[in-house]
Amino acid sequence: MPKDGSFRNRAMRVAGAAVVCALCICVSPAYAKGQQNFNIPAQRLDTALIALGAQAQVSIGGVDARLSTDRSHAVQGKMPIVRALQKMLLGTGFDFVTVDGSTFRIIRALPRRVSSLPKAPKPTQPRASPPFPPPPDLAVQDIIVTGSKQNQPLDRYPGTAYVTKVGGVGMSENLGTAAFVARLPSLASTNLGPGRNKVFVRGIADSSFSGPTQSTIGLYLGELRLTYNAPEPDLRLYDIDKVEVIEGPQGTLFGAGALGGIIRIMPNGADVSSIHASITGGVSTTQSGASGFDLGGMINVPVIRNRVALRLVGYRQIEGGYINNIVSGARHVNRTRVQGGRANLRIAAGNDWAIDLGGVMQNIDTRDTQYAERGLPLRTRASQIAQPYDNDFRAANLVITKTWNRFSLVSSTGIVQHDLSEQFDATGYLGLPGILAYQSSNKISLITHETRLSRTTVNGGTWVAGFSFVSNTDRIERSLGAVDAPAMLAALRNAKTEIAVFGEATQSIAPDLSVTMGARVVHSTTIGELPGGMAPEFERKRTQTRILPTAAISWKPRSDLLTFLRVQTGFRSGGIAVSGGQINTAERFDSDEIRTGELGLRIGDASGAGRGQFSGGISGFYTQWNSIQADVIGISGLPFTANIGRGRIFGIEANVMWRPSDGLTLDAALFANDSALTTAAPGFEETNSNSLPNIAKMGGRASVAWVRPLSDVINFKLDGTIRYVGASNLGTAAPLILEHGETVQADLSAALEGPKWQISLSTTNLLNSSGNSFSYGNPFTVALGQQITPMRPRTIRLGVNIGF
Fold this sequence. Notes:
Elements: H1 6-25, E1 36-40, H2 45-56, E2 59-61, E3 75-79, H3 81-89, E4 94-100, E5 103-108, E6 144-145, E7 152-153, E8 161-165, H4 177-183, E9 187-189, E10 199-201, E11 217-221, E12 224-225, E13 240-247, H5 251-254, E14 261-267, E15 276-286, E16 291-304, E17 308-319, E18 324-325, E19 336-350, E20 353-366, E21 372-373, E22 380-381, E23 389-404, E24 407-425, E25 437-456, E26 462-482, E27 485-510, E28 513-529, E29 541-558, E30 561-572, E31 575-578, E32 586-589, E33 592-604, E34 614-626, E35 629-633, E36 639-643, E37 645-661, E38 664-680, E39 698-709, E40 715-725, E41 728-729, E42 739-740, E43 743-753, E44 757-764, E45 787-788, E46 795-803
Parallel strand pairs: 2-5, 11-14, 18-22
Antiparallel strand pairs: 1-3, 4-5, 6-7, 8-13, 9-10, 11-12, 13-14, 15-16, 15-46, 16-17, 17-19, 19-20, 20-23, 21-45, 23-24, 24-25, 25-26, 26-27, 27-28, 28-29, 29-30, 30-33, 31-32, 33-34, 34-37, 35-36, 37-38, 38-39, 39-40, 40-43, 41-42, 43-44, 44-46
Helix pairs in contact: 1-2, 2-3
C-alpha cells in the first residue's frame, strides 16, 4: 500500500459517495410530479444532492468517488425535479436516469450526439424531426455572473449583465473586440483602428482619444486586469470561452475606473485530465481591397495527469487594407498584422487548491491609418507621409484559488507592460514649412493584486470581501518636426497607486425579496513629473480617500421573473497632463465621480433552453457625472486633458430572445440614450447642452441563428445579424463637434459542422455599406471637418476549425 495515503484518500471519497447514496435513498419518496420551490446554493456535489433529495422528498442514488470532489450548480426557484437535477449536474460529468416517479440514479455522463440515438423503424406516419441542441452561444446552462465576484446566477443578479459565448458561428475566434461590441447592445467603440480604440459601456463616454485619463471601463482577461489608461489591446478571441459585460458603475467591486462597467474575457483554462488540441485557419478577401489570412492553434497537455497541465495558444493574422492615398499613389495602405499567444500552467495542488500561472502577448502593427477624406474617391485620402501605429502588449498573472464547503478564496496578481506608438502627418502645422511628422509614444507599466473571500450561505445569500492594490505608471513622449529628426514637444510621467478594501453582500429578507449592500474604501496617490522639473507652485503629488457604496433590492416572485432597483457609484483619480499650449508644460486635471440609479426587469430562462422558450429584459437608468475628465484636441491639433464640466445621461435598453422551434433562435436588442453636458467648466462654455461623445442616441441589433441536422453526424448552421448605429458627435468641444454614425451593417455566416470539425463561410458588411463610422483620423486636420472613417467593405472569409 502506498505510504502517501493516496489509496486511503480514494477509499474515503468512495465511502463518502456511498454515504451520499444511502442518505438520499433513505429520503421518503413523496415526489410530486408538479413544480416545487428549490433553494440550493452551489456547493460540493454530494451535499447538494442530499439537499435536493430532502427538499424534493425523492430518492437519489449513485456511488462515485467524484461526487465528493465535484462542485454543483445552484438550483433556485420553482421547477420540476427533473429540471432541478439537470441544472445541478450541468457540466459536472454526471447525468441521471429515472427509475420511477420518485427515484433517480446518478451515473457518469456519456457523450451526447445525435448519432448516439437509436434509429427508429420506418414510421407509418410522419414523425417529428429529432431534437437538436441550440447554437453554442445559446446552449442550455446556468449563466453565472462571475464579475459579481460571488458567482451569482444571472437569474438572481440584481443588475444588468450580458454573457455571450465565443467560437460559434457569428463569433469566430479570429475576431477581436469588435466582434462582441457588435453583439452586445450596451457596448460602443471608437473606430481609430485595430488596437487603438476606446470601448464604452452604457453611454459613459468621455472622449475619442486615449491620454492620461483612466478608461471608463474595467477590462479583464479572466482575473487579469488588462488596462488602466490605455486603449483596449484588442486581444483576439482564440480559445476564449465567453465574454461577460456587467454594466456599472462598478466602483464597489472594481475600484477607480469602471464608470460604465466591466468587460471580462474568460479564456478556457488548462485541463489536467486529458490531452487535446485544435487548429483554426481562414483566408479572406475584401471588395476593392487586399486579401488576408488568419491561423491559430491550441494544445492542452497534462504534464502530470490530474495534477499539472499546460495549455498553449498561438496565432498570426494579416488584415488586408482598403484605404488608398492619392498623394503617394499607394493602395490598400491600412494593412494590419496581428500576432500573439497565451500560456496557462495549472497545478491542481490537492485539497481543492489550484494554482494558475499565465502569460499573454500580442503585437499589432498597422502600416497606415484607416480614415479617408470627403471630396475624394471612395475610401481615399491625401496625406504626405504614412501614419503607422504599433500596439505591443505583454502580461503575466498568478492566480491561487481554494474552495471548501461554501467558501471560495481567490488571490490574483498581474503584471502588464503596454507600449504604444503612433505617427501623424502634421504638414502645415502653425504655417511651418516642409513635410512634418508628429510622433507619440506611451509606455505603460501596470501591477495589480487582489485577494478576496466569498461565501454562499445556506439560504442562498452571498457575500464577498477583499482587498486590492493597483500601481500604474505611464511615460508619454511627444515630438514634432522632420520625419527623421523630430524635436521633443513634451515628456511626462504619471504614477498612480490605489489601495482598497471592499465588501458586498446579498441577503434574502423574505422568500422572494433580497437586498444587496456594499462599499469600497480606496486610498489613491497620484504623482506627476516632467523631466525638466515643474514650477515650484505646481502641486506634484495628491492623495485622496473615497468611499464607493452600492445598494440594490430585487424581487423574484417567480423562477422566471426578476425585478431590481440598484444604485451604484464610481470615480477616477486625477493627474497631470501635457498642456495644450507651451512646449513641455503640464497642467493638473481633477478626479471625476459618477452616480447611477437603475431599474430593471428580466423574464424567462436566459439560457434559451427549450422550444418556445422566451426570455428578455428591459432596464432604464439615470446617471449624474461630475467634473468629467476628457482627452481633447486644441485648435492647433495638439492633444491635452481637462475637466470639461458636469453631465447627465438618461438611457433605456431592452433585449428579447425567442426559440419558436428546435434549432431556430431569434434575438433582438435596442437602446436609446440622451446625454448632455449640463454645466460646462470655465473655458468650455460653448459646450453647454452638447451631447457626450461617441454614444448614439439610438441603436439596435437583430439576429437569427438556425441549426439543421443533415445527417447523424453533420449539422448545418446559419447566423445572420443586422446592426444599426445612430448618429453621435466625435467630441463635446470645438473643433470636435463633428457628426458620425447612422450606419447599418449586415453580417451572414454559414457552417457545416461535424463532431470535431467545422467549415464556415462568413460575410461581413454584406450590403457593402460605406458610411462614416468615425469622423477622425488625424488631429492636425480634423478641424477641417473632411475626415471620415468608412466601414470595412464587404469581406468574405472561408474558415476551417479542426479539433483533436
